[in-house]
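Explain this fold:

***
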Amino acid sequence: MKGDNQLNWDKRHTPQLHPTVENLSQAIFTVNRHAKTAPNPKFLYKLKHDALYKLIKEGKANKVGLHYSGNPKNSQQQSDVLVKCGYYSFHLPPSKEDFSHLPHLGKLDSQVRNPKASLSLNTAKMLLIAYTGLKEHTSSPQQKKPRYEKPVFKKLGESYF
């Protein structure tokens, strides 16, 4: 019984992370890493985008320059903005002003890596949601695809009606 109480106490009293630059950059790194394989990554990428822009606006992160994208979409060449935040660096889509104001750094150096982060996805999301004020829309169970039904074949000449 005592073990049960301890378990419930731990769930209700998870340590609250403070929105320091280090904690926020780790949270962005965690969210970004999970977004790459998430079934619906839109909210996670929006969280990353809004958190980074808020950090830039507050002067806690800065745009360093432009990198050629490793995965260009429909073109042969595409650039991304390199953003430094704490010990971490991230890429964001560029605005038109970024092309005229930021230096182009050329090809991304594949040897440069972000440090490991030890935050869970839920903790990272909670921290970034609290920081940005975004709300995750948990939609009701999505409409199910209609179940496959085998076709019914009528004999030649029979009516389908």
Observations:
- The longest strand covers residues 62-68.
- The radius of gyration is 23 Å.
- Residues 1-15 have pLDDT under 50 and may be disordered.
